[in-house]
Amino acid sequence: MKQILELQKQAAPHGLKLHLDGARIWNAHIATGIALNELANSFDTISVCFSKGLGAPVGSAIISTSERIEEARIWRKRYGGGMRQIGLLAAAAAYAVENNISRLGNDHKMAKEIAIACAQIDSSIINPDEVETNIVALNLAKFNISASELSQELKIEGILTGALGPKFLRLVTHLDISQADMDKVLTILPPLLKRSLVAK
Hints:
By secondary structure, the chain is of the alpha+beta class. The chain is 46% helix and 14% strand.
């Protein structure tokens, strides 16, 4: 919050507006305990996502003044972003907000478990204390395997991950991951890492 307030302070004299890409604001709220309105207070516009952590099939919304929303609708149409007959999607988004925010803590817990298991192989790969939400970012610099190679090996085992750099692998936990899925990750990932560890 301190950085956000400083950003707002620096932007205001220049007449700059602040936008919050709030796709993961729900996770930040659960992880920090800070109220949603407090997290959003410093911004002029906010976008929120109902899929990802909340599990709706699709959908985002923008929050701002009525004037800015009207302008955003014009630009949405110009960019081809309009949709018709979206009542079912709106219902799914409403369900997600009403029922799935409270369960995000479970996603965070699973991510922490994965981080701890990986750190036990080598502390350079990740610091579990820094895993606060549902994203696990693995640093493979000391490992004799690239992120894409490890991602492919995990995919063969039915575990989907994202290679976001030559030595950077990302795992994201979410509501579709069962305890059986977690057991699989914790059984398969650490041995793969151990096998490819390069002593320096």
